[in-house]
Every structure is written in C-alpha cells, then in structure tokens.
C-alpha cells in the first residue's frame, strides 16, 4: 500500500484524518497508523477508503498512477500450460482430500455443507492459479520469456 499516497489524496480532498477515521468506523490513531504504514489495511477497508476518496483501489495500492484507472497487472502474467493445469488440479484434489479426511472442514463440531466446501475449493484453486502465474513470471529466465 502506498502510505504516502493515502495521505496525499486525503490532503488533496481537504479531509481531516479524524473525519476519514470516523467514516471508516475506526479510531483516528488507527487511521493515522495506516497512513504511516504501521498498520495494514484490510481489503474491505481499502475499498471503503477508495470510495471515500473517489479513486480505485489499484491507485491506492500503487498498481497504477491514474486515480480512476484500473490496473491490468494480471494480464501481464504468463498463461498456464496444460501441465500447470494438471498439477494444480492434482494438488487441489490432494488438499481437499486431506481436509475432508480430518476434522479440518468442521465448524463448531458440525461438518461443513457442500456449498461451503465448494467455495473453499474455488478460492483455493484461484489462489493456486495466481500463485503459479506469479511464480512463472518471477522465476522464468528472461531468455525464455515471450
């Protein structure tokens, strides 16, 4: 998060930090700690801050320099190969089997319903796909990049 960017936008909008904190439902000290980079911002709070300031979360996160432009950072990541897809599917199945064989997918002693299990699976798959694409970009030697 671009901590100086948050402070800069707030000052441009001529809003006090106390007022922003009030709008977010947090203490002024907590907000100022966010501005100073001493505290992290949740995704929900980042979205609310972007709304308050009238900018995109991509701008707050430093992914773009235009306040109202979304970043296309994920389009710059390499595509997954069929082998990558197979590896992800195999790893995902192994993880889900492991979770289902233990008490890991229980809440308050009750097994999770199928819908919740499916949501967990979708979330894990998306995370694994993104992690694989980022790793491919980071660790592929330049001479092999397209």
From TrEMBL:
It comes from the Bacteria. This is DNA-binding transcriptional regulator, XRE-family HTH domain. PANTHER family: HTH-TYPE TRANSCRIPTIONAL REGULATOR XRE (PTHR46558:SF11), TRACRIPTIONAL REGULATORY PROTEIN-RELATED-RELATED (PTHR46558). The keyword DNA-binding applies. Residues 6-60 form the HTH cro/C1-type domain. It holds the Pfam family HTH_3. The lineage of its organism: Bacteria, Bacillati, Bacillota, Bacilli, Bacillales. It comes from Aneurinibacillus thermoaerophilus. InterPro entries: Cro/C1-type_HTH (IPR001387), Lambda_DNA-bd_dom_sf (IPR010982). Keywords: DNA-binding. GO terms for molecular function: DNA binding. Gene3D superfamilies: lambda repressor-like DNA-binding domains. SUPFAM superfamilies: lambda repressor-like DNA-binding domains.
């Amino acid at each position: 998060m671009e901590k100086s960017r948050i402070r800069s936008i707030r000052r441009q909008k001529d809003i006090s930090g106390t007022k922003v904190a009030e709008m977010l439902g947090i203490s002024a000290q907590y907000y100022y700690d966010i501005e100073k980079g001493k505290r992290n911002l949740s995704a929900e709070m980042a979205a609310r801050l972007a709304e308050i300031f009238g900018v995109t979360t991509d701008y707050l996160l430093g992914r773009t320099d235009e306040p109202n432009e979304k970043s296309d950072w994920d389009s710059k990541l390499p595509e997954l190969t069929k082998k990558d897809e197979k590896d992800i599917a195999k790893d995902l199945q192994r993880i889900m089997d492991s979770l289902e064989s233990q008490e890991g997918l229980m809440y308050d002693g009750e097994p999770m319903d199928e819908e919740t299990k499916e949501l967990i699976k979708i979330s894990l798959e998306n995370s694994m796909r993104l992690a694989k694409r980022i790793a491919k970009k980071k660790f592929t030697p330049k001479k092999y990049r397209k």
